[in-house]
Amino acid sequence: MQVSDHDPDYDVGPGPLASLWRYRLASSVVIVLAVLAGVIHGLLAAPPTKALARIGLANPRGLTVILGGSASGADLGRYASARARFAESTDVLATAARSLKDGTSLATLQTAVEVTATADADVLIVTATGSGAEQAERRADAVVAAFRELTLQSTNDTVNSQLAAVARAQTQLDQLFMPGPGDSARAAAAATALGELQQTAARAQTEAALFGSGTVFVENATVPHPSSDAARAERGGLLGLLLGVLLAGTVAWLRAGRRREVGDGEAAARLLGTRLLGEVPTTGERGRFGERGRSTERGDARERRGVRERGGIRGRGRSVERGRADEADGPRSSPQPAHHAAAGVLTAVGGRGLYVLASPGRQDGRTATALGLATALAAGGCRVALVDGDLRTGRLTARFGLPAAAVGLAQLARGTTDLATAIRTYSTAEGGELAFVPRGQLATDPAGLLGRAELTETMSRLKKLFDIVLVDTPATGPTADAFLLAATATGIIAVARWRTPGGPLRRLRAQADATAVPLVGVVLTHGPRVRGGYQDAYGEQIAFDVERTQTLRPRTSGDRPDRTPPHEAAAPHKSPVHKPSVHKPSVAARL
Fold first, then answer.
1. CATH code of the domain occupying 49-161+213-222
2. What does the alpha-carbon distance between residue 402 and residue 400 come to, in Å, rounded to a whole number?
3. Higher pLDDT, 364 or 176
4. In sequence order, which ranges of 259-350 are alpha helices (DSSP H)?
5. What percent of the chain has pLDDT over 90?
6. Which CATH architecture has domain 268-295+312-547?
C-alpha cells in the first residue's frame, strides 16, 4: 500500500477540544494557575468602591427675593442642574478636601466625585469613589456637608445684601424727608417707599429662614452593594477560569497544529507508506510485554507457576545462565493477542526472511514488540531467531537474564566466535522454540562492527537456518545502526508509539527509502489503555487460534488438521494436498 507523503486527515490537525484533551495535563496546570492568579488579583486589587449620598433640595417656588424663583417645571429643572453644578464646583470640593484632613486633594475629589439630579429635580445624588467603603463614604459625606455649608453661607449673604440695601434706602429717605408746609404729599410717598423696603427686608429674612441651607433632608453616604473578600475572590477565580481555558485551548491548539501526532495505526501506516501489522494497546495488567518490561505481582506469580508447570526455561546454548534466565521474563511471558495478529500478517505478507525492527524513539516499545512477535511466531510453529542488534544498550539481552559479557553478536561481528556458540534456544510460554543471539561484549564503537563482513555472513546464515529472523535495533533518531543492520534484511518493520509526531516517522520512511530496504509494515504500540484485557468483558481469556497464523516451514501431518477448502475436496480431479512429514532438527543440529 503506497500512498502520498501527505495524509489529508493528518494535515488537518485536531480541533480545540481534542487539543485540550491531548495536552490535558499541561492545560490543567495552565487553568489552575490562571484561577489562582484571578483569586489573588481579586483579593489584592479590589475595584474602587462607590458610596452614594442623597440631598433633598428645598423647593425654590415663591422665594422671589433670594432666588427669584418661579413655579414652572423648566425653571425647577434648571434650578436642580445649577445646584448639581454648584455641588461639583471648585469651592465645594476644596472645602470638602480641607474637611477630610487625610491628604485628599482637590484634584482627587474632582475625579472621584460626581453629582447628578434626579428626573423629578428634587434630589441630588452624590457619588464618591474610594479604595474602600469607609473612604468612599467619608468623601461623599464631606461633599454634602460642604454643599450645605456654602449654600447656607450664600443664602445669608443674599439676605444681608437685601437688608443692607434697605438700610441705605432708609437713610437716603430720612435725609430727603424734611417736614414742612405743603410737604404732606412728598412725606406720604417717602413713607410708602420706606414701608415697601421694610417689607422686602422682612420677606428676605423669612425666605432665608425657610430656605436655610437649601436642603430638606440629607441621607448619609452608604455603599449599595459592598463586596466581601469572598465575593471578590469568586469573581476573580471565575474570570481566571475563563481566561485560563481560552489561553490553554489556544496554546494546545497551536501546539497540536505544529506537532501533529499519530492517532491510530492507519495514520502511521499512511505516513510510512506501508501496511499496518497490528496495534498493541496498553493493558491494565503490565505482566505482558509492558511499557518497561515490568510485571505486576499477580502477573509474576502466574508466570512463576507457568514456569514450574513447564519445567522451567530450557537453555540449550553452552553459555546460558539458568538462574538469570529464571529471574527475567524473556520468552516465558505470553505475547499479547495483538502480537499474534501482527505475526499472522507478517507471515502472510512478508514471507520468510530477516526483518529489522526500527523506530524513531527510544521508548517506542521496539524491544517488547520484537520479543512479542518472536514468541507469537514460535507459538505458531515457525522457526524463529531473535537477535539483539542494539549493541548500545542490550536491553533484549537483559530481558533474557543474560549478563552483558555473554558471547553474542559483537563477537560474531569480530569473528572471535562461531554461531553455534553464540546462539541459545528457549522454550516459549505458548509452545515452540525461540533461538536467541545476545548482544555480546563490546570493546569498540558499535558502528564500526555493524559494517564488517563477518556480521553480514552471520545474518545470511541466520536467514538460511530460520524461517524468520527478527533483529532488535537502537532508535533511528540518534543512530543509524538499524539501517546498517538492514543491509542484508528482507525488510524493515517500523514500530511507532501511539501519538508519535509525524515528522520522525517521515524521516524514518526517507531513511528506509535511501537504503532501498522495503518497509513491510508498522506496529503501533502503547495504544489507548485496555483495562483488564479481555477477561473483564467475557469472563475468561480469549484463546486466539494460533493455527491460523501462517507458517513457512514444512509441517507434519499431525501438526494441524486438514483445512482443504470444500470446493477442492469435492472436485474429483483435485485431491487434498497433505504436507509431507518432516523431522524438526534442533538448532544445534542445523548449525
1. 3.30.70
2. 6
3. 364
4. 265-272, 297-309, 322-327, 337-349
5. 37
6. 3-Layer(aba) Sandwich (3.40)
Q: Mean pLDDT, to the nearest integer, of 336-345?
A: 92
570 pLDDT above the threshold of 60: no
Which residues face 353 on adjacent strands?
468
Our CA angle for 420, 343, 466, nearest 5°, is 25
Query: Which of 63-72, 197-206, 318-327: highest mean pLDDT?
Result: 197-206
Residue 116 pairs with which residues in a beta bridge? 125
Q: Which residue has the higher pLDDT, 60 or 369?
A: 369
Domain ranges of the chain: 16-46+229-258, 49-161+213-222, 268-295+312-547
Over 90: is that where the pLDDT of 464 sits?
A: yes
Distance CA 86, CA 49 (A): 24
Report whether 343 contacts 380 (CB < 8 A): yes
Q: Does residue 514 carry a pLDDT above 80?
A: yes
| pLDDT value of position 519 | 94
Contacts of 314 (CB under 8 A, 6+ apart): 425, 426, 427
- CA-nearest of 112, 125, 132, 113 to 49 is 132
Contact 383, 353 (CB under 8 A): no
SS3 154: helix
Best CA proximity match to 409, nearest among 396, 422, 420, 393: 422
DSSP letter at 407? S
Closest CA to 20 of 208, 211, 249: 249
3-state helix, strand, coil in the chain (%, to 5): 50, 15, 35
Which pTM value belongs to this model? 0.53
Q: C-alpha cell of 577?
A: 494436498
d(CA 328, CA 334): 13
Quickly tell me which residue has 449654600 as its cell.
151
CB atoms within 10 A of CB 168: 11
Least confident among 220-229, 424-433, 560-569 = 560-569
DSSP states along 523-570: EEEEEEEETTTTHHHHSS-----GGGS---S---TTTS-----HHHHH
Q: Give the strand pairing for 468-472 and 353-358.
A: parallel
Q: What is the mean pLDDT of residues 75-101?
A: 91
For residue 171, CA distances in Å to 195, 286, 418 come to: 13, 118, 146
pLDDT given at position 21:
80
Q: What is the pLDDT of residue 359?
A: 92
Scanning 128-287, the segments in alpha helix (DSSP H) are 133-176, 184-211, 229-258, 265-272
Residue showing cell 511507532: 496
